[in-house]
Design brief:
- The protein is of the alpha+beta class.
- The chain folds into 4 domains: about 50-85 and about 335-405, conserved putative lor/sdh protein from methanococcus maripaludis s2 fold (Beta Barrel), CATH 2.40.420.20; about 90-95 and about 255-335, Elongation Factor Tu (Ef-tu), domain 3, CATH 2.40.30.170; about 100-135 and about 215-250, Beta Barrel (OB fold (Dihydrolipoamide Acetyltransferase, E2P)); about 135-215, Helix Hairpins (Orthogonal Bundle).
- It is about 30% helix and about 35% strand.
- The chain has helices spanning about 1-40, 65-70, 135-165, 170-195, 200-210, 395-405, and strands at about 50, 60-65, 75, 80-95, 100-105, 110-115, 120, 125-130, 215-220, 225-230, 240, 250, 255-265, 275-280, 285-295, 305-315, 325-340, 345, 355-360, 365-375, 380-385, 390-395.
- A 6-stranded antiparallel barrel has the order 4-13-16-15-14-17.
- Strand 14 (about 275-280) and strand 15 form a beta hairpin.
- Helix 3 runs antiparallel to helix 4.
- The chain is rod-shaped, with a radius of gyration of 46 Å.
- The chain starts with a helix and ends with a helix.
Amino acid sequence: MKTTMTMSTAVAAAAIAVAAYVVWKSDVLDRFNFAAASADAPSGDSSPAVSGRGPDATPDQSVELTDKQLESVKVEAASEREFPIEKSAVGSIDFNEDMTLQVFSPYQGRIISLFAKVGDDVTKGQTLYTIDSPDLLQAESTLIAAAGVLDLTTRNLARLKQLYETRAVSQKDLEQGISDQQTAEGNLRAARDSVRIFGKLDVDIDRIIAKRLADPTLIVASPIDGRVTARNAAPGLFVQPGNPPAPYSVADIATMWMLANVAESDSPAFRLGQPVKVSISAFPNRLFDGKVTTIGSTVDPNTRRLLLRSEINDPQHELRSGMFATFVIRTGDPVRSIGVPADGVVREGDGTMTVWITTDRRRFTKRTVSVGMFHDGYHQILEGLHVGELVATNGALFLSNALLSAAH
């Protein structure tokens, strides 16, 4: 009897302990669930409401903004834009070597004076340098002698004509005088031409003959309008025709070259004569027009690139050799696609591109899109967005950051 009562008491005590444990556990679970619900609930207007984080959430995630937060986001309807088919590359500006001339002295001699520096703009016929030329001195001496002989033979012929009229000389003597005078005239013309080759004008030649004074100073002038690109001359330096380096180099700067190395894979898109738009870092708000003039015939085995040369118009002579430049060539007809401003597209950490879509201009849903070309500040959207859908065109990064902050 006593044993039976003791067992009953133990069973009752165990039942009471189990009931107390169940009550305690239930209370703990209720407190935990309340704390979790409080953590997920929005606190005033300071944080955007986030959905799509539960076990049944879809890939799209949403953010709901307050009125104040909406001021940081701009919403527009997605619309189509034209995206040109273009290829671009970077390169540098250089002188047009087809219009660059090396100005050698036509005859040997020593340089006397220099009249232009590197970077000076010169005109055709403007003096670049002068030399003391023994060849010019010889030609002028021959000219003076020829002029003297002609003067002598002309006076002699006049006397022979007078004597012939009085039968004082024979016809043979007269004919010989005529021949001598004609020979002297021919020699003088040849002598004048020889001096004229040195750049002397007729007025200069007449002055030499009148003063009987040879001037060995040979003037070497610029053959074209352009800019001095190199000077390898100095007073006293002995120069010879065609012996490099040339004393001066002058380039016609009405056109310049743009040299670029383009990818081998892009080469089939280029054609001779294609119009080119070139932007120069020194002139950020301007474009220079040109055309493709040379496509390289070989590919660099190391870089897998080839040379592309364009001729750029520079009527104001603003470009300088060595300037950094970027060229764009339109290689096809433009295409129409949905365009979203750059601030409306976000590159995620995994490399995907996303935009934020809304239907009520308050709740925004992140959507992955396929992006194509970029032109004039707009991304081309190939997939994931339809015309007329409301998209955040400014503030997409703010929405992504708000989602990320709320998730943590």
